[in-house]
Amino acid sequence: MPRIACSRQPSEPSAAGGRLWRPLRALLAALALALLAACGSTSGGSGGAFYRVQSGDTLHSIARKHGQSVGDLVRWNKLANANRIEKGQLLRVKPPGTGGSASPPPRAASGKSAGGAPAKPAAPIRGITLIWPADGKVTRQFNGSSVLGITIANSAGASVVAAAGGTVAYASNGLRGYGNLVIVRHDGSFLTIYAHNRKLLVKQGQRVSQGQRIAEMGDTDSSQVNLYFELRRDGKAVNPAGALPRR
């Protein structure tokens, strides 16, 4: 996926530059979608590297549908129990390296990292300082493989704020699995991602300041009320704990 230099954008386009600003905003939105969609297909079909579990599915039926063995699906997805999969869960159904990235988009919080994998220690991140995007309990930690962000649980309508100042690159619900989604672009090639919101309070192209309320927490495309939060640098997910203050 081609990269675009993350230079500072004007808060308001000039009259002369208006014709350029509009396609730039559209390009940023396309970049945001491509960035997240690169995590793999979220459809229930058989054409992508990932498959979203449907009602009535078993690991055996999914393996048969995609021409794989149950053992391979268990190994690729780091499943602790082949008999326990959840509706809405995303499973890799093609070998790593044959399409999509090594990890699917997130699913709803379950209280621990997918497959029981422990969270990796957070390395300090230079170039950006974050504040917590929401109050609540962290129910899911970044592990760098199956979980590429953190999940914060609270009540519906709880405030979601910008973890750092920047420009809203995307604010809509066009990407399955993320619900009402906000992506904020920051200086230094950083993006922050806020998913599953009940209501979005900002628009694409809007400048936001650190701590500004950008959404209300919700459960769109999730089985529980929560905020799924990611930090990406140069398109790659990094552990946000390395830039967040200790709680």
From TrEMBL:
<feature type="domain" description="LysM">
    <location>
        <begin position="49"/>
        <end position="93"/>
    </location>
</feature>
<dbReference type="GO" id="GO:0004222">
    <property type="term" value="F:metalloendopeptidase activity"/>
</dbReference>
<dbReference type="InterPro" id="IPR016047">
    <property type="entry name" value="M23ase_b-sheet_dom"/>
</dbReference>
<dbReference type="Pfam" id="PF01476">
    <property type="entry name" value="LysM"/>
</dbReference>
<protein>
    <submittedName>
        <fullName>Lipoprotein</fullName>
    </submittedName>
</protein>
<dbReference type="InterPro" id="IPR036779">
    <property type="entry name" value="LysM_dom_sf"/>
</dbReference>
<dbReference type="InterPro" id="IPR018392">
    <property type="entry name" value="LysM"/>
</dbReference>
<feature type="region of interest" description="Disordered">
    <location>
        <begin position="88"/>
        <end position="121"/>
    </location>
</feature>
<feature type="compositionally biased region" description="Low complexity">
    <location>
        <begin position="108"/>
        <end position="121"/>
    </location>
</feature>
<dbReference type="InterPro" id="IPR011055">
    <property type="entry name" value="Dup_hybrid_motif"/>
</dbReference>
<dbReference type="Pfam" id="PF01551">
    <property type="entry name" value="Peptidase_M23"/>
</dbReference>
<dbReference type="InterPro" id="IPR050570">
    <property type="entry name" value="Cell_wall_metabolism_enzyme"/>
</dbReference>
<keyword id="KW-0449">Lipoprotein</keyword>
